Amino acid sequence: MSSGGESSFAIRPFGTLAEYQACVALQEEVWGEGFSERVPVAILKVSQRLGGVASGAYGPDGRLAGFVFGMTGIEGETPVHWSDMLAVRPGLRDSGLGRRLKLHQRALLLERGVRRVYWTFDPLESRNAHLNLERLGVVCREYVEDMYGESDSPLHQGIGTDRLVALWELDSPRVRHRLGEEEAGHGGPTGQAEPALEGVPRTPRLEAELPSGSGSHPAPQTPRFDLEAPSVTVSIPAHIQRLRRHDPELAREWRRATRAVLVHYLERGWEVRGLKRAGNLSHYRLVREEGGTSSSR
């Protein structure tokens, strides 16, 4: 499940006070000094006692390179897990280490009889969405506006904390296929092949890239709410943090447009099943079976 440099990292649960403290320090390094939503040592330790996951990835030098943290509880009568944090040091974010941490989490939870995991991610963060949807196999059926209120993290300031809720069904055919545990052909949650993006209606529609002396940034037009096809796409900028720094108001326009259209379609039975990246844009794929309900619900 690993290749290249990331295979040299050892992943294991935290066990010493120094390891828990290093996790807290890494949270501030990733989300900003004084990050008010950091998880303290006490909660990291208690979560493990109650079936949660608090584990780190360590390099050959023994330094903490990333971590995953989540809590386990009961939804109805079913054990479920909420994966609260996943972080990897900036220089390692395209190494595959984040995926390895999620696979470690999955293995621990399956051993404990937990087969359903939730977490949230920013719909405008293309890289995180690609990992979640394409490499891990989550689906998303819920959009929450400003889920965490105003954040003091520099990564979130100015564009709010809207979130998609990821559902990771750990032993489903879709997830097993995405992780390479089954042969191709099980793209959908019930085994059906998933449609390609070509020919799928897009919303919001996009205008041509805006001319700029320092580069071009795509802009959303008015979202469409009239599509009834089984599959539609919703486009987002490929690099929201870069856009946020260059043109904060355009970043906010993307938030408003994508919020409106994602809420509209998710509330009417579509679910997010994929994301494809293409240049300055990425495209979510939303799927709904005939009759208005998703087959994987």
Structure description:
The structure is a single chain. This protein is α+β, with helices and mostly antiparallel strands and 297 residues long. 28% of the residues lie in helices and 25% in strands. The protein has 7 helices and 10 strands. Strand 9 and strand 10 (281-287) form a beta hairpin. The longest helix is centred in the C-terminal third of the chain and has 20 residues, at 248-267. The chain is globular and about 55 Å long.
How is this structure best summarized?
With 297 residues, the protein is of the alpha+beta class. It has 7 helices and 10 strands.
- What's the count of strands? 10
Arrangement of strands in the largest sheet: 1-2-3-4-5-7-6
User: Structural class of the helix and strand makeup?
Assistant: alpha+beta
- Average the pLDDT over all residues and give the rounded result: 85
Rg over alpha carbons: 19 Å
* Largest β sheet strand count, sense and barrel closure: 7 strands, mixed
Oligomer: single chain
Tell me what portion of residues adopts beta-strand conformation.
15-25%
Listing every helix as H and every strand as E from the N terminus to the C terminus, the arrangement reads: EHHEEEHEHEEHEHHEE
Ends: how far apart?
29 Å
Uncertain regions spanning at least 5 consecutive residues: 184-193, 207-215, 293-297
Helices, by number, come to 7
Sum up the overall morphology in one term: globular
Helix amount, in percent? 25-40%
